[in-house]
Amino acid sequence: MKQKELIGKMTLEEKAALLSGKGEWQTWNFDHLGIPSIYCSDGPHGLRKQAGAGDHLGLNPSLPATCFPTAATVANSWDPSLGEEIGEALGEEAQAQDVHVILGPGLNIKRSPLCGRNFEYFSEDPYLAGKMAAGYIRGIQSKGKCACPKHFAVNSQELRRMAMNAVLDERTLREIYLTGFEIAVKEGRAKALMTSYNQVNGIYANENTHLLKDILRDEWRYDGIVITDWGGSNDHIKGVAAGSDLEMPTPGMDSARQIVKAVREGKLSEEAVDSCVDRLLEAIQTLVKGKEEGEKPKDFDERAHHELAKKAAAESAVLLKNQEDILPLKPGTHVALIGDFAFDPRYQGAGSSMVNSTRLDKISDMIGEYDLMVTGMTKGYVRTGEPDTVLEKEAVDLARAADVVLYCFGLDELSESEGVDRAHMRIPQNQITLLESITRVNPNAVAILCAGSAIEMPWINSVKALLHGYLCGQAGAGALLDIIVGKVNPSGRLSETYPLRYEDTPAFKYFPSEQRNSEYREALYVGYRYYDTAKVRVQFPFGFGLSYTEFEYSDLQVDEMGADFILTNTGKMDGAETAQLYIGKKDAKVFRPEKELKGFQKVFLKAGESRKVRIPFDDKTFRYWNRKTGHWEVEGGIYTIMIGASCLDIRLNAEVEMKGTTELYPYHTNRMPSYYSGLISNVEDTEFQELLDMSIPDGKWGGELTMNDAICQMYYAKSPVARFIYRKLTQMKKKSENAGKPDLNILFIYNMPFRAIAKMTGGMVSMEMIEGIMAMVNGHLFRGLGHTITGFFRNQRQNRKYVKKLTEKKGV
Q1: Do residues 271 and 351 both lie within one domain?
Q2: E-state strands within 610-726
């Protein structure tokens, strides 16, 4: 125990208080003990330190900060060193704003394209996600700050995210949903980790001993702090027992009282409390010591960070189509600029990651700086979807008179947001209708797409070129224009698959959960792992992206330590290529996808230049999780090593033989035909149960509602008052959606469980009061009302008593 002496000076009440937040973003300080408060801030792609009263969803304004491209965008760079540069910049801004813990990056797996928070996550592939996250973490922590990767683990849907149970087998958990976090912890050396809201196989992630103790601390040797997501603590006593160190944001003194009571009644050991306090104190002392040793910068270089944001956007934009080499545009080309996104760019997602950017570049403002003849500009459509014939006619007339149309379009703010999953994968129809009208009068359309997640593209034949900028941050406009005119050669490659239609996706029948359980019946077959194995045609494959030059692969040599090959730029322009290493095994005794990404390297080559590239193998290249042995194992035999420009563009093949580590195999082949074929679109109960190696848990709603049910489940309430409140909330939610701007506060309330009320109200509501509220919801109005009122006054009285005990010594 590193802080044993200091812990010995603390009372049990002080230790219990330290394990919950003092405010929305701060920890408790005990000045008489020399324990300061530290400050947390959202920051996956830019800091969001609020200037006034804090709130989780960004409803109040935050201090200006650089808005870098989102994780979904930067992942397309396939460049962890770029992530490290962004991390360093985030760390510098944290220094300037006196932030200690940056709550990011997010690296949950994109199980379905409809997850509303996909714009915040890196990839459908855990290896790529982990490597990119590790880069961000190294950069942030190089500046003496603490990165906090999130959300650990299996957080793949927003619908009822605080009241759902992810049901999956141990192998899928390990290989798909934990591997990225393992890389972030071991290679990034993250000092903090945020748990997810959901349950994992029936146990909330924040109190899941298997996740937090068995895997995170014992196997991975993680010694940093574990923080709850905001309002994500279910049972604080169980959380502390499992090794969760800090409950956020500020539940008042109710949680601290529960900890003290549990220790005194012998239900929780004081050693468990001390272990959490020790880790938290060590983090606090390290962060504050780093601040004291170096002079705190008063500001950061806004211009340099803006240029870095532009560089990141340029390296991450993906050229998906370039028919007749229409791009780059020749100097002096007469262009019409059409699309609301050119005037009012959508450059980030919505929710807790919303950044108050230091500045914002717009294509409409900047296009005049380039060697293009702009014949006219118009918004063309209403971004929220309403038809406008006047705008459409103006756009078509402009298009008719130009050589080339630059058409800016994409998903609007309502389409992608924390707190709500997408309903479909389509671009608003009025934007597509206008695109088709434009291309009827001018076939030379260059589409500039803005979206944070995969979309359907039935309209793609209407355009000659498609440049996808994703959510490209505050400097994205200049980066996209640089690519369009050829100042920058595009080098982005897709970090997720673009299916032809949503019905083709592997989790189509399983996402989102209809009831409490979200069953991961597709298992390992996420993204390209499914499409490749099941031979499902896609619009654009994982790893795909075009360039203005060509690359040739040759001379593959493979040994037991890695693969060597020659990469040559055979075109006329300098550019970067991302070489990707996949492995596969035919006739495997343990089912596996046809190919899996196990390495990559981004290489910049001048025109005509050749270079020898080596992609090493590592401990994750050949392993699989064996449920019978309870260990990572290697199946012996011949493996195919594939080097390619995407998962479907394999340029070189070789074979290597690996020795097996066990003859004890986990599966009966004849009992799992779907998993051995990869045809997992309709897995029956018996086969899923065989995969789980346990009974499928019952996730149906029924009977009385509990404090772990979501507030939107008051649809089932016995109380007519509760059902009335549900209807009013639903009306408010729909009204905000119809207005084109989701009310994040309503969405958060709508999907959160009743227990979270006690965790998110700064001590006004206790868990005792929640018991009374539940009695009212379940039809016992007067009994529940009495319990709630009595609990309110008791909670206030006990809060005052507890705070008085803490403040008897000065400096709290």
Answers
A1: no
A2: 610-616, 623-626, 631-634, 637-646, 649-658
| Distance (Å, whole) CA 563 – CA 118 | 32
Between residues 77 and 746, the one the model is more confident about: 77
* Helix (H), strand (E) at residue 786: helix 781-807
> Where do the H-state alpha helices sit in 66-125?
71-74, 80-96
Of 149-158, 657-666, 694-703, the one with minimum mean pLDDT is 694-703
User: Hey, which bits of 290-364 come out as E strands?
Assistant: 318-322, 334-338
Confidence label for 59 from pLDDT (cuts 50, 70 and 90): low
Q: Which is catalytic among the residues 42, 55, 79, 229? A: 229
797: containing domain: 711-807
Q: Is residue 592 part of a domain?
A: no
User: Is pTM beyond 0.90 here?
Assistant: yes
Q: What is the count of structural domains for the chain?
A: 3
Among the listed residues 241, 176, 171, 175, the one whose alpha carbon sits nearest the alpha carbon of residue 203? 241
Statement to judge: residues 186 and 246 lie in one domain: yes
Is there a single domain that holds both residue 279 and residue 325?
A: no
- Among residues 161, 239, 168, 156, which one has the least CA distance to residue 201? 168
Cis ω for the linkage preceding 151 (within 30 of 0): yes
Residue 294 reports pLDDT greater than 80? no
Q: Distance between CA 473 and CA 487 in Å, rounded?
A: 19
806 CB contacts (<8 Å, ≥6 apart)? 13, 14, 17, 30, 812
Q: φ, ψ for residue 497 (rounded to 5)?
A: -80, 145
Q: Is 325 exposed, middle or buried (0-12, 13-18, 19+ CB in 10 A)?
A: exposed
pLDDT digits (tens, 9 = 90+) for 786-803: 999 999 999 999 999 999
Beta bridge partners of 597: 582
* Residue type for position 422: R
- The DSSP secondary structure of 268-329, one letter per residue, reads S-HHHHHHHHHHHHHHHHHHHHHHHHSPPPS---HHHHHHHHHHHHHHH-EEEEEGGG-PSP
Would you call 229 a catalytic residue per the annotation? yes
List residues bridging with 557 in a β-sheet. Answer: 564
pLDDT tens, residue by residue, 457-494 = 999 999 999 999 999 999 999 999 999 999 999 999 99
State yes or no: pLDDT of 295 exceeds 60: no
Give the residue among 614, 622, 623, 619 at the shortest CA–CA distance from 643: 614
Tell me the residue length of the chain: 812
DSSP 797: H
Answer yes or no: is pLDDT of 58 > 60. Answer: no
Give strand pairing partners of 318. Answer: 468
Q: How confident is the model at residue 389 (pLDDT cuts 50, 70, 90)?
A: very high
